[in-house]
Amino acid sequence: MKRYTGRTLVLELVMIATAVVIAFPIYVLVNLSLRDKRSGQSILSPTTDPTFDNYRTAWRDAGLGSALLNSTIVTVVSVLVIVVVSSMAAYVLARVTRAWSRIAFVVVMIGLLLPFQLALLPLYSTMRDLDLLGSIWSLILFYSGLQVPFATFLYVGFLRALPTDYEEAAMLDGCSPLRAFTSVVFPLLRPITGTVVILNAVFVWNDFFTPLLYLSGTDTSTMPLAVSTFVAQYLSNYNVVFAGLLIGMLPVLIVYFLMQRSIIKGFSGGLKA
Asked: How far is CA 64 from the centre of its chain?
């Protein structure tokens, strides 16, 4: 049995202090969002008479209903495209050992090194020529292309550590490579797929700059855009502002907590290669 040492105590105290530092802003955010503006209570004291009027005001005045729908569509479709394209590309790159496969992998990885800001003007011009400005499809196209290299990198690392016995047995039974991938290999990629989904979902959901660029001047908005406009409007009423921020955070937090085990398994399995 391992003894409880002074080092263990120090580590536990550091972890507790870190948790308190992280949880304190969240506590203040939730606490004030449930409090009436006219309340004279201290920021640190728990709200004695909680109210949901701030949430109703934020939902109504910020137009969060349509923004929530737009953000959901953009996030779901973008992540779906990223998962499908990246997993299939990674399967070929990980299993084919020819020289062109290694060269193609390097080319894909270059996408991780080049900052997307370098292509802002050409991309904007392309979206304009395609008549996609002001449409959520411009965001889907942008995010799908931007995140595929990183997702492919994660999938390739996981696939290289995955035995080929199952797919080889499937091919011996008459499965085509595509059927072997969809029926045998892809189900085995569940841990890394969870990681890819949550990392990209958080990025797409929280991104502010790209929707500001492509949706500016239109009635279409995503959650970050709607919350930003709402914060500027209610800057003097922090209780309502905090309620709006929590509404914007809640969907992606729920998805994260539901998939956190897959994230840990994906990283532990995929980064061995």
From this structure: 19
Residue 76, phi then psi, degrees to nearest 5? -65, -50
Q: Are residues 75 and 106 in the same domain?
A: yes
CA distance readout (Å), 102 to 42, 87, 105, 150 = 61, 16, 5, 16
Query: Is residue 104 in a domain?
Result: yes
Classify residue 56: in a domain, yes or no: no
Calpha distance 108→106 (Å, rounded)? 5
Walking along the chain (273 residues) 10 residues at a time, the average pLDDT comes out as 76 92 89 81 80 86 84 94 94 84 83 79 88 91 91 89 82 83 87 88 90 86 86 78 85 78 61 44
Does 58 reside within a domain?
Answer: no
How big is the CA angle at 182 (ends 180 and 185), to the nearest 5 degrees? 65
Long-range contacts of 255-258 (CB under 8 A, 24+ apart): 255/198, 255/201, 256/198, 256/202
pLDDT score for 139: 93
User: Based on the domain organization, do 94 and 185 belong to the same domain?
Assistant: yes
Q: What is the pTM of this model?
A: 0.81
CA distance 50 to 59: 17
Structural domain includes residue 206: yes
Range of the structural domain that residue 46 is part of: 6-51
Domain count of the fold of the chain: 2
Q: Which two tokens stand for residue 162?
A: 């995955």
Tracing tokens 């072997």 back to the chain, one arrives at 180
